[in-house]
Amino acid sequence: MSSPIPLSETHRLPAWRRPEALLYLMAAAMPLSFATWSALLNNFVIEVAAFTGKEIGWLHTVREIPGLLAVVVIVILLAVREQVLALVMLALLGAATAVTGWFTSFSGLLVMTLLSSIGFHYFETVNQSLQLQWIDKARAPIVLGRIVAVGAGASLAAYGAIVALWDSLGLDYNTVYMASGGLTIVIVLFAALAYPQFQSPHLQHRHMVLRRRYWLYYALQFMAGARRQIFVVFAGFMMVERFGMKVSEMTLLLLCNYLINMAVAPVMGRALGKYGERNVMGFEYIGLTLVFLAYGGIYWFGWGIVIAGGLYILDQLFFALSFSLKTYFQKIADPRDIAPTAAVAFTINHIAAVFLPAALGYLWATSPDYVFLLGAGMALVAFGLICLIPRHPEPGMETVFSRGLPVAAE
Is residue 103 part of a domain? Predict the structure, then answer.
């Protein structure tokens, strides 16, 4: 095996073999499996497995367990390079997605969900670390916006194929799962063979890192994880349960969402570079508060599917702004902390994710509107934390309370 290529030397490679190109490729490979799994999940579990809100809550609780255990990545990285681990986990996601349609029992779906979740969460943990190591700070908002756009484009392609072919070809769940997971595996094989290993300029710590000065970042990660569960678990479930949306209709809604994201994400990146993390994240969470309150209005005022679909798209659009939290950490972090902190942050992000879906599944059975009211409250708490981000975050200026104090040796 050839020696890793330092990032400072990668400009000599063809553009398509550089680190940024690999990030784009992985950003496209992941949604082919994950977006397809997400698009079909609610219809699959209701039509084939006869799930209720309680079962879907437990399924998502199991799905989030690997996220809670993301710190295990730190141990794995003692023996495996980050780039290699990212591709291995991406392959696991593809393989588990490919065979999901074979398992229609509650226990079988829990097992396959756990395996695909290990692939997804461990890939995302390492991928976020690689993004912050391989992308220059000055270009990070623009490049991260493009990465979001690439992922949206891949999701758009997957959803478009489902919408166009599901009814016309009489597709079934197994065929679609096999095709999407198989495509991810093919891309992984290409990436493993076509790209060299890249060496970051800063050797990463290989132990758990918890810094007092990162406390606001940790708190925002926790709130982001809690807020995300309201959308991931219950917004889509509502569209199927309350309005009876079919696979093709639900996928068309997701397709519209990702078409908008693909166009808007680069603009979001430029806005982040211009207005800064505090303003962009503040806008995100005020918008989310209003969206969650409006979700409740569907139950209070009997609003129809058109309004519900519009809110669903807005919710996803605000979620796309979450890469601003990455650039905030990149600005305040010791470069050697990026890999271990990515793992710690992913674990913190998933603390609420493990208990919220199951707990809220029982609340959903009696009062679905209360679930969305709780989401609005979470968004407001997060907005209060965002107000503590300084205008120009950097080491020693992590919060508005730092006042430029020197970074303590830890």
Answer: yes
If one counts the domains in the chain, the total is 1
Which CATH number fits the domain that encloses residue 86?
1.20.1250.20
Tens of pLDDT along the chain (410 residues) come to: 467 888 878 888 888 888 899 999 999 999 889 888 877 877 777 777 666 666 777 777 788 778 777 777 777 877 888 899 999 999 999 999 998 888 777 788 888 888 998 999 889 888 888 888 888 877 878 888 888 888 878 888 887 787 777 777 777 788 888 999 999 999 999 999 999 988 877 676 666 778 888 999 999 989 888 887 777 777 777 887 788 877 677 777 777 777 787 777 788 888 888 888 899 899 989 999 998 899 888 888 878 888 888 888 888 778 777 778 888 988 998 888 887 887 888 788 878 767 777 777 788 878 888 888 888 998 999 999 999 999 888 888 889 887 655 554 44
CB 94 within 8 A of CB 184: yes
- Kindly report the pTM of this predicted structure: 0.76
| 234-238: long-range contacts, CB 8 A cutoff, minimum separation 24 | 234/360, 234/364, 234/368, 234/371, 234/372, 235/295, 235/312, 235/315, 236/38, 236/41, 236/42, 236/312, 237/42, 237/53, 237/56, 237/364, 238/295, 238/298, 238/308, 238/368
Q: How far is it, in rounded angstroms, from Cα 99 to Cα 32?
A: 14
Is 106 within the bounds of a domain? yes
